[in-house]
User: Fold this.
Amino acid sequence: MAFEKSVKGERQTLLPDDFLADLPVVDETLSIEDDFDKKLSELKKQLQIALELEHSTIPPYLCALYSIKPGTNLMPVEIIKSVVLEEMLHMIMVANLINAVGGKPRIGAKEQGEDRDFVPNYPAHLPGNVDPSLTINLECFSKKSIQTFWRIEHPSSDRNLPTEFSASQYGSIGEFYEALLKNIITLEAAAKAKGRSIFHKNPDKQVKPEHYYGAGGKLFSVENLEDAIKVIKEIVGQGEGTLGSIFSTPYREGDPKYLIFGPDVEEYAHYFRFKEVFYERFYAVDDSAHRDSPNKGLPTGERFNVDWDAVYKMKPNPTLADYKKNMPGVYPKAREFSLTYSALLNNINDACNGNPDVLSKGIPLMYQLKYQAIELMNIPIGNGLMAGPTFEYIQ
Amino acid sequence: MENTEYDVIIVGSGIAGCVMAKTLTQAGKKVLLLEAGLSAGINLDKNGNFYNYVDYLNTYYKANAKVPNSPYPNIKDAPSPNVLDIQATPSVDKGYYVQEGELPFASDFLRGPGGTTLHWLGSTPRMLPNDFQMKTNYNVAVDWPITYNELVPYYEMAELEIGVAGDASVQPNANEYTKGYEFPMKKIPQSYLDQKFMALVDKVNKGEHPVQIDKKKVTIGLTSTPQGRNAVPNEKYPYIDVMWNAEQQKLVMTKHMYWSGKDRAFKELDKKEKYQYLPVGAVWDPNTGQRCEGNASCVPICPVQAKYNALKSLAKADESKLTIKTQSVASKVLHNGEKTQITGVVYKTYAFGDDAIEYKEVIATAKIYVLAANAIENAKILLASEAANSSKQVGCNLMDHLCLLTWGLLPEKGYPFRGPGSTTNISSFRDTDTRKDHSAWICPVDNWGWGWPKFSPGSDVQDAVKEKKFGKELRNHLSDVLPRQLLLHYECEQLPNKDNRVSIKDEYRDALGNHRPVIKYNVSDYEIKAFAAAKAINDQLFKAAGIKDFTKYGEKDENGKFKNPDIVTPPRSKEIYNFWGAGHIVGTHRMGKDADKSVVDKNLCTWDHNNLYLVGCGNMPTLGTSNPTLTMLALTFKAAEAILKKI
Amino acid sequence: MEANNKNTKTFLQISVHLTGYDEMDLLGTGMLESYYDVVIHENNLHLVSEFLTTSEKILGDLPNINDKIRQQLIDDVKFNSLTSNIIMMWYMGTWNGNVVSPQSYIQGLVWKAADTHPPGAKQPGYGSWENPPITIHPPVAVKPAAKAETLTTV
Assistant:
């Protein structure tokens, strides 16, 4: 849907104009005050789920990334790394969005009265009822895990927007965000009609570009509807790219909308980047993203080397409980890992709740997390398998 | 003879050559850039560049001695000097240098794409105003043909180009900066070790036993060092690019115009967009290296390219105006006897591979010629060409900072071996009256333990194992000692001396038939007296601060040879001092106001040939106490401006 | 990678007592197999075999293990240089001064002992050097203070 295309460092936005075409402007049912408040509180909950959704893919991506043996698979490492960095950026931007509508982003610890953990219990489904047929695992880099990843980032062919928002299922992350955006727009319109806004001016709680660097494009802070739309476009654009239209609209030869690759395009959607890894080659400049194109939406450009065996074969979905009971030798290292991970989540939580400056203090934790994960992946635990990082929040 | 007519031919793709190429092509000039090193190193294609850099990094990991040139290929057709080859003189058959002087010249450089910026430390202090007038102020050496103030606008360009992180307000002579001046990025955090050391120094300064010189108390002052590595952008920094303004006939720093690589033109910034300086990341990926990541390996290699290197500037050149020829070693410039013009440059190409023996000699021509091949190589080319030498100064006045190292153990752990090589320096001895008698010095506090003089931590493990330590005892010993290591190095200013020189002799040549540099080198009493003075201060400081001194000069290896052959004794003294090279190779074609005493004029044009310019540290008449790269780059902008005025 | 072979296991266990790092620390470097290979390939096999047999016996007497190591592996001229080389290899990633592999350099225990990281690898991130190493203040499982702690040593 939204493409942030940056050409030699200069960013352009390539946005199809139909993005908001089928979204209603005002929901008539919101005339009653009670209903408005209820809907706003539901929106905050949904945004918290978006936060959890953005986070939920990070541990699986990191497991795949860290399981690649050092010095091998240079391109897959660069590609997965760039995706993870963008997911982290998305998480921060969703937190900005939550703060903007007066919510309180919760990262790490379980809020009192909540039955859901922030961190999924892997193997897990994506939070928010997104594509419940999909199971995500903490597992090593493999053709299978890369396929799972592109399914996570898959633009669904089903464009039917769910009508009821909290109880329904979503075919893809993109659809989840589309529903979310629809609600934001509707609520803001209702608020506007009363001379108010759902957006609070609380710039102090916003994480801004100066707090974040190094990857994943631009960090947007959110103060109004325009910013909120921008953030969601950025998230959806980076994740899935075309949001379904490559499957739902017919292919027309030479349609520039689908000619989105090439050396000058510095970033394109995660979905396509994972395809590149799977097929071990880049998209060529004249490749089309559309599945009915001559290249069938697949990459046909320059090949690169993928060594699927140069991987630490970590036993999928490791847990602290399992180590404590069955591998007491590994347990202390796994616990150290979980402590670092928890400290990192706490740090991000702090940063997103009024102390954006502390975000930079989390960077050493992020690196430490990596080195501890790799240390675990070097420890053999029998049957040709290795230990692995336990992404568990512990107190 | 090639047919193509270039406006300018530049020899060398180090910092001076790359910035020259960028500035001239952006101003619309057609440039040929000749580089002696391998093509792979200049790959501006993202993936190719990345793979090549990963090769450098792996070579570094595998190197037994991780010296400055260890990650980079050493090519027989364009050899680089290596610090491992330094031995007592005379030394004619080891390494690239032929050393015929009293003492070996101990500094290296890198011949390859990006030049020595690939392994420079990245410290960028400016020279002080008095440094430019040593004759007038202290009756030693010579004055520069320009003053500090004349160089200020070019310093500012250089600080933008490199991307300097620092706090301008705390620098010595901060009042001599343009009013309200800021660096592009905020200062690099000073290390934990610096903070521990500064606390100790503070206590000594205020305590009962402060450091004294001639029984007078001296206060030891420390400053955070400005550095060419990426840090938090400074929101107050207003400049975007350096641009040739044809109307004003000068280079200007833009606040609203930026260079668009896509459109190959300077464009007006979108009015709505608020400009903020953006750190320049790795050549292969702008998102990599947006901040220094604390790899603690600036020398020899920054794995994320958060530290500036010349290829970042080259990447901004207008490709359509630039021809790059690699594996092309310039050997001579051509001139026509009494004529004042250079008529061509001769370069030899070589193929690279196991059994490649294809050599070719080519002549290229242009309106203007720029030698940017490093102080030693520039001198070699001029001497081989019998060019620009009516003053007989070519090759003379070779200088370096002479580093007197001192090392000890801190009373508490400072946790070295972390962060950039140095983040703080002792700045209070950079310009005092004693310059009449002996060298001034700057003294960086090193962040990497005793690595430089002692090869720590490897030697510490080795020694402990030799003492039969093992297991927990060994581990605890290392955990106690290594985190307390402190190293200082007093970088003493060397004065120009015409007998310290680079020359060529026909019997000493490399595989391509080009000359190897023949070096005669020594240090004078002026510098040796500084060693004694610095050491006296250091000893008092260590004692008062409770730093246990482990400094030892004149150590010998198992064959009875000095480990460091650069060893000197002051007049009427039995003390011995070792000094180490700083890698600051300066002074072989100095600028001056008189044609009979200098090689280039104040615009860096040779007095003898009005279309031959020299850039690089060779131009500097004196050295001051600053790492020379920033000053050299400022002069390069000055030269670029002069060239653009001319064509 | 697994220490399933008896000799590798003995090599691992004696290395624990030679280096002062526990089994998981040594396994976590990922270097066990390749270091064992270096020992086999760079030495007289007979000597290595004797070394392993002696080590196994020593490992059977844990209460006196340090004395036994000193007497039989360090002070004994037969094993002294092999033992020293093994310690150097774990700490520096080198055998007789030669770096075994890029990874061996990165995995040297000396960097851990010094509370740092190998220069050029395992970088700790921007500004980390301003504070004491993260390894000496491992993260604790409580919510961090609202404001970042700043150093007050100077």
Remarks:
- The CA atoms of residues 397 and 496 of chain B lie 5 Å apart.
- DSSP finds twelve helices and 26 strands in chain B.
